[in-house]
Here is the input.
Amino acid sequence: MAPFQFIKRHSPFNSKLGKTLPVFAVTPAHIEIGAIEATALEWARKSGFKADNGSVLLVPSADGALGGALFGLGKNPAVNPFMTGHLARTLPEGEWHVETAPLTANRIALGFGLGSYRFETYLKPKPHGATLLIPKDANATDIKRQIAGVFLARDLINTPTNDMGPNALEKVFRDLAEHYEAKVSVISGDDLLKKNFPLIHAVGRAAAEAPRLLEMRWGEKGAPKVTLVGKGVCFDTGGLDIKPSSSMLLMKKDMGGAANVLGLALMIMDAHLKVDLRVLVPVVENSIAGNAFRPGDIYRSRKGLTVQIDNTDAEGRLILADALAYADEDKPDLLIDMATLTGAARVALGPDLPPFFTDDEDLAHELADSALENDDPLWRLPLYAGYETDLSTKIADLTNAPSGGMAGAITAALFLKRFVTETDSWVHFDIFGWSPKDRPHAPLGGEAQAIRAIYHHIRKRVK
Here is the structure.
């Protein structure tokens, strides 16, 4: 069964062994010592090709037709192991294979596949472009699986809210579950109050489309319990503490946690990992209306803790609080939440390096190792107990927005931690979900972050 795809697209790969054009991926040293095919070497030297990072030189054949291409990796190919993504956007249309490269077969194929991504739902589609033969030493099935998960996350984030509101996100959730024969249940609207999810209801009740909690179950009973929780704020105006217009421009991506969790769930289910998988996505739109929740309101959460609303723009942690409390009741072996939660995380680590928070030392080290092994960058930040007092308020158990604005990513993580009391292995990822500029493997726009590293960690964990 092919991996689930939200937007149907042309495959970046081909299978025409013996009928494809060669790409010689080289460093400057290869040109200097002549360590490539003679015809390509002669053309490179005549053309002054220096093999600079990302440079491409088309090479003619003896009869003047296109005979192949040279691809420059620069002096240190390890700086960007997915540089081959640049080929997907620069090679002319046709079938290609990589003849030589100081990169692993998996990196060659994964980089090319990730770099082939296009979001053309609202544009006239361009020609398909180049396709690549996956090297024989690569794990083709797993590469396609990872690319499908990344593309699903990117597609969901890139789709504007008029086409990706709560109803539409629920449909994709159901379609993904149906593809992998998973079970789905949904609690929506005022039923959230009846089922004791008051924070999810409060945040989303002012929107035209009802707030809801999506739940998916898949896998083997008795296998290790893995629960994924993703923040699904389809659009965030900031609520009554309204954002300035410039800060609202990218708020379609505020469901990036949900998008990444679904991409990760796709990988897990497609690989048939021996887990008891549960996916929880609280879905809301943080809108403004007469019934919007207000600064100063106090709500009793599912956990029983009371929360004072000191900023309606700190809504993501509220819906996650109810979802995490619900997840925690099942005592999973591994509980993961992902959210586009704080600007403080971006200030600390920038857009490309997501922080994660956990008190499980073994889990922290294993995730860091997986991030390095799979070139999916992560960085651990501390759950520093000294900042717990910042969450205090005189007339409720917690505030959702500590004053002062310092250590915002840490205090948000500490807030969430208060709702996870039964699970030993919990980790929170504060992702950006967006690539602010074109990179070889990641065009500007919605981005999957951390899910390849997490997938490989879970895969190793259950073995």
